[in-house]
Predict the structure of Glycosyl transferase family 2.
Amino acid sequence: MSKTAILIVNGPSDTPYGTWIEMCLSKIVQYTDPAGHHVFLWNNNTHDIELTKRLQGYRNLTLVQYEQSQKLTHFHREPLQRLYQCALREGLGNEDYVFTLDNDSFPIKTGWLPYITSQLNEKTVLAGVWRDELKKGIKPYVHPSGLCISVDYIKSRDLRFDTIQNGEFDASDTLSHFTDQARADERTIFKLRRSNKNNYHRLLGGIYGDTIYHHGAGSRNSFKLWDERHLSNLKPIRNRNRLARDVMTKMLFLHYDTYIAWLRNGKAEDKRVKRLFQVLNWQMRIKQYVPGLR
């Protein structure tokens, strides 16, 4: 029986309502057969001692703590490569799979993992979250918030997770070179396309193939979208993106079932959901003026 190494890099910051990585891990536990996977977690949030203690209590999990003395070439790519090497040392074989998740992405239904790994074969070498929402700024690719690939294909093409592409013309993102390799080999890709019935933001809060949820920029204090980088006045756009992210974060942690159900198949005009979003939007807008508001 093949196994899957799930690789996750935890960011350095969290929300006032809960931690991203524990949300992610709780959904893996809820929806995944423990016999078929093992989580390899790189934790950048090492200043949270209580979180570290809780992470050490998870079954099927190998925890790697970031050390301040370490110098990384990239905060995400290099930890993924180290986790992959750790998985190989712990017995991950050619017949097995690697699945990457972001700390703010997670499965939303039972059977998600075998469903995705079963799509891979000699013809289809890559599967996962299809990031095509920003195609005006970057070529569509399988995003690391939900990327599945076989160990055999990784080794056959000498692929690395820490590759940094410096193309003169084309933008690149973490692991986007996996998609480039599949295209170059004329292989097919199993694409989990955005399947939201409802959207609060054009990128954030995406559900893909009705299987994986990706919040987006969960652990980042600031972020910019690929197709907005050429715009001259980015500050108001970034502020709107950050506000949407924060409203959706609170919605996710405090009203999970209502929020996910609305994204998946709820009524766009649902008055209760609209009211929740309005209240959270108002709270986030005045938060900077009201000390202690959470």
About this structure: The longest strand covers residues 141-150.
